[in-house]
Amino acid sequence: MPATIRDVARKAGVGLGTVSRVINGSPQVSEKTRGRVLNAIEELDFQPSRIARRLSLGKTLTIAVVAPFFTRPSITERMRGVEATLSGSEYDMIIYNIETPERKEAAFRELAQRMRVDGLLVLSLDPTEQDLQRFHESGTPLVMIDAHYTSIDGVSCIDTDDVRGGCKAVEHLLQFGHKRIGYIGAGSKAHFQSMAGNLRFTGYRQALEQAGIEFDPDLYGEIEPGKQEARHETTKLLESPNPPTAIFASNDTHAIGVLEAAREAKMSVPYDLSVVGYNDEEYAEYLDLTTVRPKYFESGQRGVEILLHRLADRDRDPVYETLEPELIVRGSTVEPHPAA
Known about the structure:
The protein is about 45% helix and about 15% strand. It contains 13 helices and twelve strands. It is of the alpha/beta class. The strands form two sheets. A six-stranded parallel beta sheet has the order 2-1-3-4-5-11, with helices on both faces. Helix 1 (about 5-10) packs across helix 2 (about 15-25), helix 5 packs across helix 13 and helix 8 packs across helix 9 (about 195-210).
């Protein structure tokens, strides 16, 4: 039979309450007594009941992670950071995969109930003011990852700077001497009105403006997410009277569509057309694609670290952090062809 807490108390020569305090990390136990209890736990191979521990602590020892479209690479990479950091704690994780606005509303309403979970991580979703009020009233600590606003009272926010990432992509092309730089990407049409595409496009516009280049709407292609849409829109740009010499795609999937369109047009990448993607997916290295790497993994890590600190100290001030992305230069970008 597995050892019980009574067996540990008997072997260590202490009461049940003392064993419980040692298991729960209470400082109200002398080091000598703590050592006896820990030795007894090790010798008996005692495994404390998580249910009993939750009851004794008055906690669920559970953190909820709410994320849209769990198979999206950016979400998957953030979740890797979340899991890697959370695995070293005593907390379990419940994942809510959000695919519709109705599911998002139901999940936030459910999680705002008192003692449903101890803490909440929200990835790439913007709760309403009503949702935030519910979480505040329930006393559930909340950390938002990929949050595009940082003035929410009492809510910690971690963001990856997509505007700066867009700027870096275009600045790289400008340094090569490109002046006709196209943009292919998702904007307001994205699911849940995701702001990532719009923010990267904002960075594209800012870099052009800083270089004294006027924005040309004929070089802009806003599309729905997908490789085929990117290929179709790129084909139109390349067949125009004054085509771009370089294209910034708002993600690597779109960049694949750009590369396919260039191949179909018998254009050489990078000599006839330079291409920059975004996200640094695993396949980007094999495609020799210059791209921007947002710190998705790191944002997941930081989100958990901040939430765990908040759970340990409810009076801790909220944290607002922005992680700057990194430009990964590969072989899909060079100076424009002399004929351009």
